[in-house]
Amino acid sequence: MQRLYHPAPAPWSHRLSGTSLQAPEQAPQPVQQLEYDAQGRVSRLISHAFNQAWTARYEPGLSEWSIGTERHRFHYRDYQGQQRLQKLESRLCDTCPVQSTEWQYDPQGRWLQAGLWTAQRRANGTLSGLEQRQGGWGPLRLELDEKGRLQSWATSQHGGETRRWNPNGKLRRLEYAEGGSLHIQYDQQGRLSSLEHQQGHETERSELDWLGPGALRIRHPMETQWLKLRAGLLQERRLERSHSPSQSWTERFEYDEQRRLTQHTLPEGGQLRYRWDAHGHLQSLEWVPQTGQRQTVIHAQEVGYAWGNGLQLISHANSAGQAVDLMLLQPDGKPVWTQARRLDAQGKVLEDRHEYPLLQETRHWFLHYDTKQRLIAFRQGKTESAQWLAWNDSGALVARHPKPAASIQRSSTGTTKAIGNLNLDYGPNRRLQRVQTADTTLVEYRHDAFGQRIWRKQGDQERAFFFHGQQLMAELDLPAGPGQLISRRYLYAGLTPIGMIVYQPDGQGQLYYLHSDLMGAVRLISDQQTKPAWAADLNPFGQAEPLLETLEFNLRLPGQYAESATGWHDNLLRTYLPEHGHYLEPDPLGPWPQTQAVGYAQQQPLRHIDPTGLLLFAFDGTRQAPITNSNVWKLSQLYQDGAVHYAEGPGDPVTLNWDALTAWRAGRILESQWNNFLNRMQEQGPAPSAVPVDLLGFSRGAALARDFSNRILDHVQQGWFVLNDPQRGAIRACITPRFLGLFDTVAQFGLGGASNSQYRLGVSDAWSWVAHAVAMHEHRAYFPLSALTEAMNTVEMPFIGAHSQIGGGVLPDENEETISDLDKVALAWMHWQARATGLTLAELGHTDLNVLHPVLLDMRLPGLRLTQGSLRGVDSHGQGQNLMYQDLHPRLGQATQQSMETVIKRHNSWRIRPGNQVGWVDMDAYDTWLHNHLGWERQAS
Known about the structure:
mainly beta, Rhs_assc_core, 14-stranded antiparallel beta sheet, 28-stranded antiparallel beta sheet, 9 helices
């Protein structure tokens, strides 16, 4: 199969008139066609693949794109020779209301207002501040310094932060409105070396020791971790805890050739053994205790999984494809527990019914929503009175009637001081460390370097907690008996808990089986004889009503752990209040568009179907979000083949945090996108027309996009996406895996890539076209390139620049006097690749076509540039040979880099010159290089 590019007729021969695909000895089949007016503007865009034709009409200061009765009018105004968007009016049908958004600018064409955001500028025109009138964080103000870096943010409701930067442009200190601070230090290689939290007289310091290839130590007052890695996979972890100084916990991990976990050797002895099929599906999980007798936890069936005691889960959707039923059955077919839901046309849960025949219990919930889709009332059964709810924009509960929730008292800076008669005390790491009444301490907590709660003291009882991959894996009741390392261990299939091992003081363990509802919350636990050992009903906020308790169990909604002392839930990095239905603390990542400070699930606490169609799935890079204006964000906003789902990358765009270092949110980003995709597939249904699926990604986001592409193809059979989903029932939809656009893939999940094995980064030939833009001047060892294997459907091209100069969205701490805009070159190339594949994208704007500051960046510290070679490696992820250095790559290595040097003008003494700017690019010469080496003619406006 060949892809053909057809030039437009003169005088526009430098532009495309269309593309086609040609199989051997067959006539070309048209994919996309473009027509131009006399001024060279696109006047008509025809997609043969989807039988669509967009028409464009232009007037002075106006362009209109239409298809059928759908119209989008873009109003422009000229500011000193540059057109600026003034107003966007969209009408999806003749009878639909017009949706309008307006922009305002100063006389020089610099924006002053965009939607709810207002900008303040200095006399020289640079941004000094941004204000948002209303939103999920209340009135919000951002202050920027003269280099455009975020200096502070402040809200009247949830406090604020001030940032300090070191001479190298890296964040060195955070100061909080309530008086605490975080001090950040780096080693000579620019790697994070320590974090020191301070609040009053309290200090908490975490230190990272990079001990050599594949070895890392993390020191914290409560815990020390030693990590051993090989080829980016975690091989061994050893823990020492302050609560048990004479003990240590060592666990080991083994993998197959596809880098999938096959055996987890447990600290307490025994193993967990995983078996996978050829498509990467988990076939079985077995627990092998120290006695050596294997016990099956789950094993795959034709539909879903069955537990080792013979219980099996069956689910299906009703004829309308909405209400979902779930049945947990005994081997003889008798029900143990059932769930049934009734949904409205928008997918909101109106009724949720649970029956426990063996316990002779039934719970039936009725739910009601407001016009903003927020839950405003719920009741259990038809006789109990309803609980009425009112919310504010931050997601906090304003009122509950007739059973009011305990009042929350906050300081003037937004810090929570008390809930009802309980007083709260936060540690220097900003995690809850103590809850007190007027005369006694109710409970105390301590956390690790990642902010995870690892120790609790309640009265005279102590308990330790152990985490892996942001999941609670085990608990230990203290003081422990001689040799006892674990009291309870939790077993998971992905994010769903499926088993629990309860250990006796002598080390003997008993396996129990966990059964979750459509939200992923455990409702029932069974023993080896299928007899219920624990059961509970959960109200819509996740608050449990025990129905049977023969053992202790505290897992609730996904990621939440119930605290008996307060009734609250620990939720990894925050505290969730099930009585209120929201979080106690604001999001630790700070304020971002479309987020709520303390809201949980947008006030829709039951998992529901999202009726919005989602065709483009955009995974952005580490510390990338709309505010950074990355290339993934830009392309997602130009997409016109359907609605877009954009996922911000791991980490905070304007500060350094553990998420940026370890990408701990990566799994949650994937799960969110997967649920969105399943919602779209269920809505599509078995319609004969294929839905195109397009993916974009930068950095770690590109790695997530590649893993996501494989997850989709796991369920594709002859062009049909087929899945029997526990929540949605049977899903069958015709799809076309069309385009995969990647900007400089970097897979660094977990510290040093310890969690890379959880992601599949190979690219299938089922995708119509895969384009990968690669950075040729990224030299840092901890940004290894995940290269593609050469194939008929892939193109992998080199571009001048460091990592961020390919994906765009250069962060403030990577800027100097001039912000480089070399990323526009890779953006334009990817835009060209996408349109040639058949994607309908709007034209790139003038500002995204003209490269005004072609500054070359080298992100290494000046002294480290004295080394001649790059330390960046190349990972093939099981698809080929790994390379110690990118310089050795036949296509993306030293030879290509040397050919690029002819168009780069290096600064004198660039190897020891302060800052990151080491030269500039002759764009005319670079355009010639691109034409000769890539066969692509870049067009400037």
